[in-house]
Design brief:
Blueprint (H helix, E strand, L loop, with lengths): L4 E10 L16 H13 L6 E2 L8 E12 L4 H12 L3 E8 L12 E10 L12 E3 L5 H8 L4 E4 L15 E12 L2 E8 L6 H13 L5 H10 L14 E7 L9
Parallel strand pairs: 3-10, 5-6
Antiparallel strand pairs: 1-3, 1-4, 2-3, 5-9, 5-10, 7-8, 8-9
Helix pairs in contact: 1-2, 3-4, 3-5
Amino acid sequence: MSALERNVAMLVAYDGRPFHGWQRHPGRPTVQGTIEAALSEVLGGERLIEGSGRTDRGVHADGQVATTRIPADTDLQALGEALHARLAPDVHLHAIEDVPDGVHARTSATAKTYRYEIFQGAALPAELELRVWHVKRPLAWEPMAEAARHLVGTHDFATFAANAGFDRGSTVRTMHAARVAAEGPRITVWLEADGFLYKMVRTVLRALARVGEGRARPDDLAHALAARDRAASPGAAPASGLYLESVRYDPPLFAEG
């Protein structure tokens, strides 16, 4: 690493609707590519970033984290203002902070929290189009909450992992929390774990929805988990309702933790 550069972390939120996911892809609009283009325009040269994880096409984020190297004499406040002007309205830079050289957005993360939003009702408000999973028939959220409790702890989540086309190593993860709440026509699910497998959250959500529909019992989720077999999974919920809510680091990278 050059002594003329320093390591910084960015906290960003984005609306996933205009993008083909997080990961850069030549010829297609992606979140990573959009941020890299803005950095390169402001700082000059090729500027690459590393995110805490990839989000698929149509997935949103409130608290994605990315790290990158910038010239040591860069004014962070001016850089933040310049990036904000170039990224809005689809990408919002919430914070940019100096971090130690060894910090990496993905490998230094200790936990992530995903949120999933479901809207129940015959008609979907226009502003929620592709921002939630729209279900026309009501779901019973209390059995969903009961089922979600089976996910907490250290388990092999192979049942809920899609084939990502790359070596994912172990399918064992520790789920720190799994919570379901309802307010009006909205059902919100939060999952916090030390890591997530490809499409794991969306697959878990489809299983929870089956419980809410009355097509499965809460204990069926435990049986599916124990099966460690993708064939025991009912498929994946739409990307539209999924949000990367936050990424945890120890110590925290940003002032608000």
